[in-house]
Design brief:
The complex is a heterodimer. Chain A has 17 helices and 13 strands. Chain A is an alpha/beta fold. In chain A, the strands form two sheets. An eleven-stranded mixed sheet of chain A has the order 1-3-2-6-8-7-12-13-11-9-10, with helices on both faces. Chain A has a two-stranded antiparallel sheet with strand order 4-5. By secondary structure, chain B is an alpha+beta fold. In chain B, helix 2 packs antiparallel against helix 3, helix 6 crosses helix 7 and helix 15 crosses helix 16. The termini of chain B are far apart. The chains are: A alpha/beta, B alpha+beta. Chains A and B meet through helix 9, helix 10 and helix 12 of A and strand 15 of B. Bound molecules: zinc ion. The site of zinc ion (ZN) has 8 residues of chain B, from loops.
């Protein structure tokens, strides 16, 4: 078990930890993979420059699962992390619990940071797509992943988000500065209405539901109307997201071929052997399975019925959210089905991350901001990041629901 | 039985941009290996593509020159395959919505004009170069060419002979060079061509088995390859020498034969999908109009204009081979009004200096306006021809004003005939023997006297006038 896989020798400023898909020149960046063990980047990620300019210091690199798309870091080449209660946890949330960092900045590829924050009673914001530069993050799912911030409080998360948001010429998907500015200050939630995703909530266990109930009570007290909605189209995001994610992942990790950098098999006579053996020896099982699945989805045979259909599903989800935000300020949903995962259940079902992401896929596929606090997730319209964080912060402060206790009890 | 040949071409042309298509590295060939590389074009993780708008400009220009429809929303896609010269293991190309579609190119052969349909023009990035080091028996990769912008021009199978193929390629080359899209030099690889060929009984409307030949790097190689491949197909059909299969073949120009490439190198599913990192490029009316405004006339239209200005067919043809020459001529003509003289100065003096420097016509960098001023100085008898050539050499080195340079360096033709006559008298007096020989009927005897006068006058004298004055002086004495 290892939390910090690299620690900075000296840190000036408020300490921030980076998850290990964020490239740094001061320390190796591994992506949690044997393929990149010891890999030194030639350049820093844009968020590193922005953090340092805002007076933060990079305290170290936190362990993550291989290329960051697993359930809870269980596929890391450097080992999974467990808490005292024997539950799988993310290194980032453990570091925050131990107050080793004011915030953790990572790449939300498949929702692991949101699940981790929900289970640890912390705050996580996955900002609106294009408001934080992805330059210098190891690409996995370019169309949907976002640099995200986890912290113990919403205010701290907002501070760091404000520091890293902004236009970057080096990222072709980066939005104009004036638009990026919007995530720094909360706008008014005008509808005073929140939609509760019915079947997503029904898919979660009682402990999670109690968090949702607590939020509903809080929101009503704060003058919001909460209405249950039919979320069938949001539920449909997951299979589409899994196709898009696996396909893009397959393409993005194909650069790791043993030729230029990273792991190279010693056992290779021909170039084809070099490719095959390097990747076979350096990649983990979940990654290999996902590459194969993604490769199948992009094949000539499957492109139209699977990949293209998933692109069209993305459009459907985007339009469904747009329709909902014509009436509601945010959609309330869980971030995970339960408050803890045990190593045993993950070992029994290696593909849990393709199922549990039913809660995180809707915001990921649509590029919308999602905020987790007090064990619940709020998804809002583009650029509502700060407003969601403000609301979540009030909820977090008002309730401080005993999330962590319930979680550890269940594990026992 | 008589057969007809059906040929379609895929022509790759490197775009003449300053930088690569998705990063800011220089687009320059011939420099030290791996000297124009960065983490982006080397496939390092963490880099994102930023599209070079100039490459899109040139893709649009090519489309317009070939009478294509320009797709107002054009997108980039990823094409996956593993090869060491492809650092990201994918090539960014245009699969779903190429920049230009449905064009035509009119060619002229012995059989008259013919329109060849262009299916599409798509932009993409080039791959690197593998260099085999025989000493260490290793293969090294040069990434200078990685991510250099290319267009691929895909024709319909409308070509039916090697002559037509050559006419088509020469027409493409002429149009694209004239529009400054590319230098289109096959010998340097900035223009490359794959030939798709099949044969069928004359009059049949069914297509035969098609083979694709790659690695064609000269017009003459293409002619040879087509002749060889047609013979091979006919032989296979008539004599059953082999079974024709749809495949990719490599042309070996030295052996004069084509060979099937290993299936592994060519077969495969490229797993195209839209590149999420490159936003769709929307070409609005302003952008479209701006590119349209920069289009040159077709070379043959320009050529006729030049002939109308009084140039010979030969000069007009030469100038329209290169837009650089043509632009230089236009500026020089505008500054001087001397059409033939400007053409002459470019076609002879400028080209010979370029040749001496080992450069081509596209490397001409002198200011056309100043060249025109120089030509006018000669035309007005202000600077002698010989001195003007010296000034031209200087203009190739630095941007000088010809008149100011001539004045500063004592190169202005003297209008003071008395002073010239003084020089002549002195030379004649000092060379009595030559003068006497001339008087005695040896006309050649004037040459050394003329040379000495010219030297004394530093060339600043109109030769005809000097000769007349010299004869008068000798005959007086
Ligand atoms: Zn580069």
């Amino acid at each position: 078990m290892s939390l910090l896989i690299n620690k900075a020798q000296e840190t000036a400023g408020k300490p921030v930890v980076l998850e290990d898909l964020v490239l740094t020149t001061a320390m190796p960046t591994t992506g949690g993979s044997k393929m990149l063990d010891g890999y030194m980047s030639l350049f820093d990620a844009e968020v590193v420059a922005k953090l340092e300019a805002a007076g933060y210091g990079i305290a170290g690199k936190a362990n993550i699962g291989e290329f960051g798309f697993d359930l809870m870091g269980e596929t890391s080449y450097f080992g999974a992390c467990e808490n005292e209660a024997g539950a799988l946890v993310s290194a980032a949330s453990q570091l925050l619990s131990a107050s080793e960092a004011q915030a953790v900045v990572g790449l939300d590829v498949n929702g692991v940071q949101r699940r981790a924050a929900a289970q640890a009673g912390q705050v996580c914001v996955k900002p609106t797509y294009g408001t934080v530069s992805r330059f210098g993050t190891i690409a996995v799912v370019c169309s949907g992943e976002a640099v995200c911030v986890s912290a113990n409080t919403a205010a701290e998360a907002q501070d760091v988000l404000s520091a890293i948001a902004g236009h970057d010429d080096k990222d072709g998907t980066s939005l104009p500065q004036a638009v990026c500015e919007k995530v720094k200050t909360p706008a008014e939630l005008a509808h005073k209405k929140i939609a509760l995703a019915k079947s997503l909530t029904a898919a979660a266990d009682e402990a999670v539901k109690s968090c949702i109930d607590a939020f509903v009570a809080f929101a009503q007290d704060a003058g919001f109307t909460v209405e249950e909605i039919d979320d069938a189209l949001l539920v449909a995001a997951r299979p589409a997201w899994n196709v898009l994610m696996s396909s893009e992942l397959c393409n993005n990790v194909s650069r790791f071929d043993g030729v230029k950098y990273g792991y190279r098999s010693a056992n290779a006579e021909t170039i084809d052997d070099l490719y095959t053996n390097s990747r076979t020896e350096a990649f983990g099982e979940l990654l290999k399975n996902t590459i194969l699945f993604g490769s199948e989805m992009l094949s000539e045979e499957n492109y139209m019925p699977r990949y293209d259909k998933s692109l069209r599903m993305r459009r459907v989800v985007v339009e469904e959210f747009a329709r909902l935000f014509g009436e509601y300020d945010a959609v309330l949903m869980p971030a995970c089905s339960k408050m803890a995962y045990t190593p045993a259940e993950v070992a029994a079902d290696k593909f849990l991350c393709f199922k549990e992401n039913m809660f995180t896929a809707p915001a990921s596929i649509a590029g919308l901001p999602a905020v987790v606090a007090g064990g619940v997730q709020l998804v809002g319209p583009a650029f509502s990041d700060a407003a969601l964080l403000a609301l979540a912060g009030q909820f977090d402060a008002a309730s401080k629901t005993p999330v962590a206790c319930e979680a550890s009890e269940e594990v026992r | 039985m008589r057969y007809e040949t059906v040929i379609g071409l895929e022509v790759h042309v490197e775009l003449a941009t300053d930088s690569k298509i998705f990063c800011s590295c220089a687009n320059r060939s011939g420099d030290e290996q791996n000297s124009h590389v960065c983490p982006a074009c080397c496939g390092m993780p963490g880099m994102l593509p930023v599209t070079n708008k100039r490459a899109v400009d040139l893709g649009m220009t090519a489309g317009m020159m070939l009478n294509c429809h320009i797709n107002r929303t054009t997108t980039f896609d990823k094409k996956s395959y593993y090869y060491p010269d492809l650092p990201g293991s994918y090539q960014t190309t245009q699969w779903f919505s190429p920049v230009a579609v449905n064009g035509t190119v009119r060619i002229e052969t012995e059989n008259g004009p013919k329109d060849i349909r262009v299916k599409q023009i798509h932009m993409e990035e080039d791959a690197g170069k593998l260099v085999h080091d025989t000493l260490s028996n290793t293969t090294l990769v040069d990434f200078n060419r990685t991510s250099v912008p290319l267009i691929e021009i895909v024709s319909q199978p409308d070509l039916s002979s090697a002559d037509e193929v050559v006419a088509y390629l020469e027409r493409l080359r002429s149009l694209l060079r004239f529009a400054k899209v590319s230098e289109c030099r096959m010998e340097l690889g900035t223009m490359r061509c794959d030939v798709n060929l099949s044969i069928r009984p004359e009059g049949s409307d069914k297509l035969g088995v098609r083979t694709e030949m790659k690695n064609m790097n000269s017009i003459s190689a293409i002619r040879r390859a087509i002749a060889y491949e047609v013979d091979r197909h006919i032989d296979a059909i008539e004599n059953g020498t082999e079974e024709l299969v749809q495949e990719t073949r490599r042309w070996d120009d030295e052996k004069g034969m084509s060979f099937a490439m290993r299936n592994k190198e060519t077969a495969g599913d490229y797993r195209y999908f839209p590149d999420p990192n490159v936003m769709p490029i929307v070409i609005d009316d302003e952008w479209y109009g701006r590119i349209q405004g920069t289009l040159p006339p077709f070379p043959e239209v320009k050529k006729q204009q030049l002939i109308d200005q009084g140039l010979t067919e030969y000069d007009a043809d030469l100038l329209t081979q290169s837009r650089v020459l043509c632009d230089c001529y236009d500026a020089a003509f505008a500054a001087s009004g001397l059409a033939k003289e400007c053409a002459n100065w470019i076609a002879t003096n400028c080209l010979s200096i370029l040749k001496k420097n080992g450069q081509t016509m596209d490397d001409l960098e002198i200011d056309g306006d100043r060249l025109g001023q120089l030509v006018k100085l000669v035309g007005d008898g202000v600077v002698s021809n010989a001195n003007a050539k010296k000034i031209l050499e200087v203009m190739f080195e630095e941007d000088v004003d010809p008149k100011a340079y001539a004045e500063a360096n004592d190169m202005i033709v003297s209008n003071d005939t008395d002073a010239v006559m003084d020089v002549i008298r002195g030379i004649v007096a000092a060379n009595e023997k030559d003068a006497n020989d001339f008087r005695g009927g040896n006309e050649k005897a004037i040459n050394p006297l003329f040379g000495k006068c010219m030297k004394e006058l530093k060339g600043n004298c109109a030769p005809q006038q000097l000769r007349e004055m010299l004869i008068a002086c000798i005959m007086e004495g």
